[in-house]
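Hi support team,

I've been running sequence recovery on a batch of backbones for a student project. Most finish fine, but this one hangs at about 90% for roughly twenty minutes before it completes. I'm not sure whether the input is malformed or the queue is just slow. I've pasted the structure tokens below so you can try to reproduce it. Let me know if you need the job ID as well.

Thanks,
M.K.
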């Protein structure tokens, strides 16, 4: 089904019983969206995102990372229960051979600096610019969608992808860890031992925390996407900005700005593996992500609602 056809279906939900177009000029001016009108548009956005071959390829790459990490650790250690041989990496990487559940935490730590944000940058950067480049953006607005409503749906769709991408890494890591390594009671970073079921709940909480850590990047990508009609340019710019921020975060001389970078607290999810949980950096991360979402979300709204849509 084409994007225009899906837009047409959304239009039927948005149109009034008398054939009027309540989502037209009023919605474009930023009228308050109703859940009844937003849901069909959101559903079509999510379906179209996950039907793209590019999205499936990105998820495939993410799924391969934990499998490769698990195989590499298995080969390196020979599956021996020796603590993983030490070395660099996250604090819990040495625990993989003792408990396969730690492969989930390690894989998220490995993919978070580049692989996960890169895929989010691609999806977020293409969200509006890709529609404009394909010539479907006007049809979505005529459907009617309304600019504010459409922008909210684009952001929500990107956040759904963030969660889906994170869960793909976690699920494949868990499956690989169960197949290659023993599982059982989990020894946390604080030394406390908890049941395997508790460890699974912590793994789920960490996956959600990682997904929420990508909120700032999603908002930044959405803003960039409203600036151009080229999806490729928006994707490249978003990924380029991501790399720039990560480089700045490694320069000691710029330590004063580090706490304000959306990447700075990404690995704070490890504090969920302590008993009691250390909430300080987790809350700071949430605050930074909320700040970026508010700033760049507002900038995207200001740009998109005043933009002359010609494609």
């Amino acid at each position: 089904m084409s994007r225009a056809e899906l837009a047409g279906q959304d239009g039927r939900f948005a149109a009034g019983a008398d054939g009027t177009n309540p989502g037209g000029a009023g919605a474009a001016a930023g009228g308050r969206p109703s859940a009844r009108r937003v849901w069909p548009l959101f559903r079509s956005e999510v379906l179209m995102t996950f039907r793209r071959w590019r999205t499936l390829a990105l998820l495939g790459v993410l799924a391969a990372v934990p499998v490769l990490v698990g195989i590499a650790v298995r080969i390196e250690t020979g599956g021996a229960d020796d603590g993983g041989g030490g070395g660099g990496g996250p604090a819990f990487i040495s625990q993989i051979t003792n408990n396969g559940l730690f492969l989930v935490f390690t894989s998220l730590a490995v993919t978070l600096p580049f692989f996960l944000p890169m895929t989010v940058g691609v999806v977020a950067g293409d969200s509006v610019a890709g529609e404009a480049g394909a010539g479907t953006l006007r049809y979505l607005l005529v459907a009617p969608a309304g600019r504010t409503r459409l922008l909210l749906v684009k952001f929500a769709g990107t956040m759904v992808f963030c969660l889906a991408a994170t869960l793909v890494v976690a699920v494949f890591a868990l499956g690989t860890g169960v197949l290659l390594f023993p599982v059982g009671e989990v020894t946390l970073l604080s030394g406390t031992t908890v049941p395997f079921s508790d460890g699974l709940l912590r793994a789920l909480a960490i996956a959600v925390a990682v997904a929420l850590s990508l909120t700032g990047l999603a908002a930044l990508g959405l803003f960039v996407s409203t600036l151009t009609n080229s999806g490729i340019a928006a994707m490249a710019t978003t990924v380029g900005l991501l790399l720039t921020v990560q480089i700045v975060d490694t320069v000691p001389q710029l330590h004063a700005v580090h706490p304000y970078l959306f990447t700075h607290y990404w690995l704070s999810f490890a504090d969920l593996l302590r008993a009691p949980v250390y909430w300080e950096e987790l809350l700071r991360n949430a605050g930074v992500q909320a700040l970026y979402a508010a700033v760049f979300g507002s900038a995207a709204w200001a740009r998109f609602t005043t933009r002359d849509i010609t494609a």
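--
Follow-up from support: It reproduced on our side and the slowdown came from queue contention, not your input. The chain has one domain: 3-14+32-306. No action needed from you.
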